[in-house]
## 1
Amino acid sequence: MLVNIIFGLSFSFMNSSNTILTRTKSFFAEIGDMTLFAGRFFREVFSPPFEFKELLRQCYNMGNRSLLLVGVTGFILGLVFTLQSRPTLLQFGAQSWMASMVSLSIVREIGPVVIALICAGRIGSGIGAELGSMRVTEQIDAMEVSGTNPFKYLVVTRIVATTLMLPLLIIMGDAIALLGSALIENLKGDVSFLLYFNQVFDALKFSDIIPATVKSVFFGFAIGLVGCYKGYYCSKGTVGVGEASNSAVVYISMLLFVIDFIAVFVTDIFF
Amino acid sequence: MNSEKNKPVLELKNLHKSFGDNHVLKGFNLKLFKGENLVVMGKSGSGKSVMVKCLVGLIQPDSGSITIKDEDIIKMGHKELDILRTEIGFLFQGSALYDSMTVRENLEFPLRRHKDKIENFQGTEILVKEALENVGLADAIDLMPAELSGGMQRRVALARALILKPKIIMYDEPTTGLDPITAKEIILLMRNIQKKYNTSSLIITHDVDCARVISNRMILLVDGINYAEGTFQELSNSKDPQVQAFFKN
Ligand SMILES: Nc1ncnc2c1ncn2[C@@H]1O[C@H](COP(=O)(O)OP(=O)(O)OP(=O)(O)O)[C@@H](O)[C@H]1O
Ligand SMILES: [Mg+2]
């Protein structure tokens, strides 16, 4: 009896450690595959033929589809952040620091991360689902057969598009967030917009803006890369498509924080 | 016409392909001669689609040789393969129309890289219109694939496969999932196109009517090998129960 239980317990432990092991293994295998995928991207992005028309179309689509979402999110972010910080700053009589504090934290950290996360849900999952369904319905095979390299036409254009568009979206989102913040200060604290933005530009230095922009380039690359990878190697069936778009968002979100951590680390050393 | 002495335009020798433990093709052989309609029949899941995908280089076989026009396509680089593919039309089992593009853009897609391939090229517009008229869908030119019925989608896919005037056409189940009348229309279309452009066709199907109407010769794919070969008459009169199973309704 006892032997049986011990045996059973140890067996189930072996079993569970086995699944943890295999899952860890497959996780790292996936990271490896993604690295290979990125390598293929860099090989193909610089070799002709170039699909400029499709690239422009992708840029337009992504910008167009995310504009409103990023705008609204940024605006609310600015409002909430300023409303929340006001009482604390007032307590210390440091109200005049509001503009510099808000602008620094939004431009350096909160803006890029929040907007990239929004875009992971909007753009990354969209790419995963679109390429996934193209894979499942054999449209990618059909492209290959008709003499167009689907990797160039679908993957390269999308990764380049997210890499270009995300910094732009983030800069726009930051600007709208600061506008929201200025609005609160204007309504509640009688600070004119002119004064507020003067303070903002006094506070912001290039050493704040450049690392943030470089970081958002990497964010964009990560969104495009993972979305395309998940979609391009989507497994068969509609379940596969849902899975592709879903796990694209999960992986991108994780990757964004990893990139953010590395970026903060590196910025800390150099600036 | 198709005497065995002719050189085949397409030849598969001893093709093997497995997915993990699933041995799909176990030494499949096939020859397609110029101007003939060769029908390959086989049960669902027997590896017919895998076989044609090997033929156009979408799937790498484990072993065996594939020669098209005396060239081994397994050893081919990407560029040569692309050039060869302009001479091959491929109708996908599920039509595989690009659903983010209009019918016109779908048909223009194969032309974007291969305009130079076409004799006396007179502009994309004319070619697209001609291809759509061939399948009787000239009105659908500005619709999206989602706005078409299944049968219309199949016809647009057919037009797309034929737009480069290929010498060899592969049809993966052209009539599956269509009602008998539409299926008959598609079969007639295939026959007309074959007569008009004197193409060689490889037709994959499990539709006996389709096979009867269109085939010059048939191959049965059973257990990963070419189990039986012959004309429709010969095979439908065969005593072998495995062969008989395909023909009785
Ligand atoms: N990419 C793949 N990965 C793993 N297995 C595959 C893949 N493609 C096909 N198979 C397997 O190969 C076998 C043959 O598939 P195939 O699509 O060739 O069948 P088929 O003869 O075309 O059937 P149908 O008439 O239903 O289209 C199936 O068992 C399928 O599970
Ligand atoms: Mg099939």
## 2
Amino acid sequence: MKIPSGKVFRNDAYAKVTGKAKYSDDLKFFNMAHAVPVYSDYIHAENLQVDTGAAEKSAGVLKVITAADVPGSIRFGQIDQDYCMFAEKKIMCAGDVVALVVAEQRSQALSAAEKVVISADPLPVVSDPEAALSPESPIVREIENSNLMNHHKMRRGDAPQELKNCDIVLQEEFSTQFIEHAYMEPESAVCVPRQDGVMEVYGSMQHPFSTRRFVGALLGEPLSHIEVYQPPTGGGFGGKDDTAAIVCARAALAARLLNRPVKLTYTREWSIRESYKRHPYRLNYKVGIEKSGRVKAVQVRMISDGGPYLSVSPWVNWRSTAQCFGPYTVDNVHADVLCVATNNPVTGAMRGFGAPQVNFAVEQISDIAAERLGISPLEYRRINMVKQDGETVTGQVLDTHTVSMEQVMDRVAGEIAYEEKLGRCSRGTSEGDELYGVGLSISYRGSSLGAEGMDFCSSVINCQFDGSILLETGIHENGQGAESVMLMLLAEQLGVRLDRIKYKRSSTSNVPDGGTTVATRGTIMGGGAVTAAVQKLKQLMADNLYDVLQCRPEEVRFADDHVLGPDSDSKITWDEAMQHLFLKRVYPYAFGSFQAPDVSWDEETGQGDAYFTYVYSCQAVELTVNKSTGKIKLQNVVAAHDIGRAVNRAMVLGQMYGGITQGIGMALSEDLEIENGKFAHLDLNHYKIPKARELPEMTGIIVENPDPQSPSKAKGIGEPALELIAPAIANAVYNATGIRYRDMPLKVNPEDLK
Amino acid sequence: MSAEQTTPVLTVNGTEHALTEAELNMNLLDYIREVLNLTGTKNGCGTGACGSCTVLIDDAARRSCLTKVSSVVGKRIATIEGFERPDGSLHPIQQAFIDAGAIQCGFCTPGMVLSAYSLLLKNKHPDREEIRRGINTNLCRCTGYQQIVDAVEQASKMMYP
Ligand code: FES
Ligand code: FES
């Protein structure tokens, strides 16, 4: 049955608003010990020596664990097995963990940690990705003979040649910074050895299945010996995969070695120090444009900082490659996207995944180009944007869904009165103290993993004799409301009351591995799996109930909490249906799986059907810049996204506002300040995420062109929301000041305004 | 003086707790979470930056991670658990948070509710800017605050029609 729109549904809201929700650090087990990590002061060093003698003798200490105690593999990773879970002979970055101190009390573990003596021979620190590529640079990863970790290419047409014949050639350089996920809950894990030999893992994580692999690797045990549960997770945004999994793995190792429950809860300081970041990029674009306004050729080189471990950098870079010139059709593209090893903090997945950096450049270029051409920024975008049945830069023909790029842009431009306000921008001069500007940007985003990964997911519907229903899917709740969306889809498709259904606490030992709940794939993949299971269940029920309803199996319908025949006279309640089935010894149980439609990719040319569908987005902002302080104050934000279909409207809006806010943080205030591999600060007092007063009221517009490629018709919103507000802000700042800022975070120096 | 009279006491959610010497030296957040097992109060930073640890001290929203137990002896402390009514119903602020879609990961939620409560005690009908000021020191990484502001607005209307 359908949830009345406008009503908010969340299966976890009551527990969260009453403080009853138990996050990982809120769990306690009998006889539980406490672990804390030990870091070194080195950034890059060899001949590591760790003396744990004094720490072992410290009060309450049960064990000090180092690399020497690891029964399985010390190194693991999602792509390369290179992530060092305990530093072995070398220190590669500030976040490397040298030892784990386990004690009866956390306070005892903390004071013992100070007594671990670490020595090593420092090595030169590699911190500039550009310099790291030179043959003279020291090599960071001894497993390779160069610091180049990854190189994705696109070779479409002949951009270098065509650039020579263009009327206008723009040459622009941009840079972006390290970004911290800053989920409000720092990492935490509690591991409990069970009598049957299984290690139970409770942790703050995004991906229980990935966690299970990390735990299995460190312990040297098969996956069936590890059962991972996911308590409520206090935010993830892509950041609670590898590092959060490693926290779980270390706690599991301690629990295994001591044969008792162990909790490992991170402080904010350790969380910032160790967790992976968003990749900083340097982007160099050469864009050739004809007088008509049409972009003829693009040549781009991007360099991203990979830190010392690979993590998922190649996948992040891949998205930057596939979407290297935003939502525009160009016949000649020559792109090189490089990831370079350094001794800076590890970089990996973060909401947006290689797109925010690219969009920051591309959407400023759009405004720069429009100005050079003397046409409106909307006009430039209209000329070049992807259209229905048109081709993307990867050569993919967009003919399987509604291409709504223009529709979405027009909605935002209309709502904020863009064209009219553009004429009122200060461009550096105003009567008063404030300069005014409006700015806009557009993007499209390939949904789900695309050709970057294995994309399938499953779900189980288990109907009970008394009419209640258990649902389980292979995607996970990260705070975005994924479980609620799955529950709503099931209730709607099965025609039953929502309160019949309980989402089953997920465990890696039940439902099969459904892949990571990342890449805005939760709704599309989980929803696909639920839809598939519903179809099977309906078939099963129809085959066994048609005689009761005195009709043919194909005439059986499901609605209003009933199972019905072709006319509404023959019907039974859901409860009666369950009784009939159980009396017939039939289990109303269904397993459904959904596999993403085929995608393709050619590594050499960067051509192929990169994603099976796309989300179209436009965001605009109005702001003022204070002439004497340079302070940027946002006044208004309007966003529109075509997400196929909104299953839970309030939650979709929440994702939009939250994503936009993270984008605003990236644009204006967030900067990790890494100097030669060292963090300037390790706290949220200095790393400034947006606060309530710094934000304007936002208007979210949901555009719905149901997507035939998605069984639930929905696409997803998590990442599109974040990926394009920064260039809109940069464009607005330009329109206010007349100055183009090409580096994030944007800082207006009042001196420049004089 | 008898020993009884000098035993320092802390009132948390209406219940008096006698404090030991060691407890007096703890910070209030650890005492609430580890000793009283009231885990609705969260630790998001431990350095006064995030507001996840917000509790009410004599009705004012305060950060428990920066508060020594010894400094609040004799005062009234309320945590999110103190909002539970005997019949299990929700406080209007809590209901408004659910209705407005103001909850995502939920880690900031208890602290937000308490900051909103203390704001509405002082200002029954705050406008949206005043609400933003009232919750400005509570960080939320998920929601962008807009639906939280909506929730506090709704709660004010429910509580003081
Ligand atoms: S935990 Fe107290 S302010 Fe963050
Ligand atoms: S809901 Fe996640 S931090 Fe606020």
